[in-house]
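ZP: hey, is the adenosine-5'-triphosphate complex queued? I don't see it on the tracker
AM: it wasn't, my bad. submitting now with these inputs:
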Amino acid sequence: MQKRDTGEGGRSLVVDAVTHRYGASVAVENINLDIRSGELVALLGPSGCGKTTLLRIIAGFVRQTEGRIILSDEVVDDLGPKRRRIGIVFQNYALFPHMSVAENVAYGPAALGMGKAEREAEVRRLLELVKLGHLADRLPRQLSGGQQQRVALARALAIKPRILLLDEPFAALDKNLRLDMQIEIKRLQRLSGITTVMVTHDQEEALSMADRVAVLSQGRLEQFASPTEIYDRPQSLFVNTFVGSANQLNGIVVSADAGRATVRLDAGAEVVARTPAGTLAAGQRCLVCLRPEHLELGDGADGFAAVVEMGLPLGPTVVHEVRGADGAGIKVSEPRRAGVALRETGAPVRVRPAAPDLATAYSAS
Ligand SMILES: Nc1ncnc2c1ncn2[C@@H]1O[C@H](COP(=O)(O)OP(=O)(O)OP(=O)(O)O)[C@@H](O)[C@H]1O
Ligand SMILES: [Mg+2]
């Protein structure tokens, strides 16, 4: 890579108590993120939760109502997007329609004063990287959505940003190309140390690519942690059910202390659950979350009684849909062994947690 005035590595990025309102409606509310130099962070959340708004605030296209954006210890709230030297790939690509692919990529470097020969070599290198070398002379409207997206990515990288912001960068790509691009971005990001914030509503993409994931819901930050922490120790009911799938079982708290509760499930068994969102009280109605792979089916006496309704063989695993005595539909995922018949519809089974410490309980209110 060329060494220009951006120097090596990425900048750290602090989102400090940022709130943004469009008129009376709050799009993001008191967001705090401390992103390390070179880190890849995913903003994950459902449509409308404020991901793009937050990205545009970081880039400098939207001025937040409250709070600060800090790049490498410098408050940049009064700097426009150009002066922040941030590479951004928008959700809608926003390519220059009257410029060819090569001209689109060359635009940023030209504006920064890079010489013609160097610029052309750089454009060639970047177009090879995104596998578009053969389409350099086309106009954006002569490209597919996925190709346009890759041009947008090459264009963002061309200014050698020290922060890269990507808004749903792979949404228009088919599955194989998406995987290639995910690996390519991650490799590039590692090599160059560009601090990267990537917006996605695809939880697999967030978990597989990011060093840390920020889960947003309705403008609020629900949790900011490593992918395994998010998946294994979700802080809120929202994170628990939005990331991965989780059975939600109704129950009543038998006893509780700080961080833990023993819950009698309506379906019939007692489980011990973590209570990360706050201590529960004995007698309180609650929801117990257990992921399909956190449950197992047995024939013994422990757990609660259920009946097999369906088995879905998914290659290495089989997901059983079973129904408990209280009518609750529950998914249980088990390893599948070749040649072993699936459980029959209507077969009675017992359902139990596969290990202690896997359940999480939240107040039902
Ligand atoms: N310019 C605007 N004026 C008024 N409201 C807006 C504006 N832009 C966004 N909003 C609202 O702010 C909220 C957050 O929007 P935002 O675009 O940040 O969501 P998002 O998480 O990026 O969603 P998606 O996944 O659909 O792209 C939404 O309720 C949206 O309707
Ligand atoms: Mg968006």
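AM: back. The two ends are 55 Å apart (CA to CA).
ZP: great, adding it to the tracker
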